[in-house]
Amino acid sequence: MSETHPFPDLPTGTWPAFPEGMVWLLGAGPGDPGLLTLHGLNALRQADAIVYDALVDERILEWRKPGARVEYAGKRGGKPSPKQRSISLRLIELAQSGHRVLRLKGGDPFVFGRGGEEAQTLVQAGVPIRVTPGITAGIGGLAYAGIPATHRDVNQAVTFLTGHDQSGLAPSAINWEALAQSSPVIVMYMAIKHLAQITAKLIAAGRDPSEPVAVVSNATLPDMSVLETTLGSAATAIAANGIEPPAVICIGRTVLLRQTLDWAAQLQGEPPRSLDPLGLNDTAESA
What we know:
This protein is of the alpha/beta class and 287 residues long. It contains 10 helices and 10 strands.
């Protein structure tokens, strides 16, 4: 650790040094540049080389150290993308050349971001690493939409699910019956392509087709959109509205809380659609 202080306008603290030959894996958050951490800004101000993903808002790159080299290594489903092995080897090459290498990834590098794979390869190659988490879209994106990932009146558990496995197909190793019956709220990443198949499995396993669903696309960005639908209608509604990735999908009654907690709409002068979206007052009165 170093006693350098890259933020003279903030309280003095201990800020990590960024030695030559290290790769720093950094989560940039779900989109809004303001969600980058102070450790992330510190890394940007020291990095010699930045290798960034497709979902990183490029405005964040404006905070880099003057003269730092920037390389794009975005992976998008269904589009020409660099191979994961090639990305990892490039990180090793840059680090072994003496660069301070910042691997800048959208969201959190260890949440469906292949950060663990890259870190493992780096360690195996003898390259020192540092990891700084970022706000993941499955939490931050929902919060911007006014949907809590957890709420005491709804759920004591939440499951995060990827919409595809290593083969690119719908996940095959999931016990759909156990998932459908055990997790009150399910948050899915990268699930639009296989959503019809996934929702059919959940419904067949006992999930209610009328259960609330929210689809948050371009989460936290100015063009963010939120589609409210149901489990049985979600795949059709997404197609009808032309929604494309990136999007995070939430299944569960916490989606109803958006009727009260859509803070972005309220800042624009719109009133809450409901003050009791879960019907708790009605339940209390009837009891």
